[in-house]
Amino acid sequence: MKLELVRPTLELKKKALAYRQEHFDYDERVINGSELFDQIDSYDEWLDKVNKNSNAETVDPNWVVTDTFFAVDREHDCIVGMIDLRHTLNDFLKNFGHSGYSVRPSERNKGYASEMLRQLLDVARAANMPELLLSVAKSNEASIKTIIKNGGVYHRSFEYDGELADIYRIEL
């Protein structure tokens, strides 16, 4: 697997929009780990927001410093996933954790999520983060397996919008 985490750029716009459209075509309106890419009409505006949120001096005051990545399959030259790393947690994020991720619907069950999270752990270590907290719906067995495969240990449970979820902890 030749998977690489890359920061969004203007050059990736066409591939990014195709990635988002595939989620929509599968009737998925929420793209986890996308910094609201699923809710913004303009790629250029989204890219500007992502770039600003990656810097402590320009981050939105209601958010936290966040690194956002496309997971690019270099062999097939396409975006297969998205993942983000939130360097800290505010009150809103305490139940959502340090990272969210998604995989293109047609590319699921191929190990991409596990590899994306493995690579993100290296980014978190380089940022001197002591741990990653990750939340997952109890019904999302694939994501639970991905987290456990990367060293996740059950930490606690919570309820959000009537759905039960767990938080896993990965020590770095």
UniProtKB/TrEMBL annotation:
Residues 1-172 form the N-acetyltransferase domain. It comes from the Bacteria. PROSITE patterns: GNAT. Pfam families: Acetyltransf_3 (PF13302). PANTHER family: ACETYLTRANSFERASE. This is Acetyltransferase.
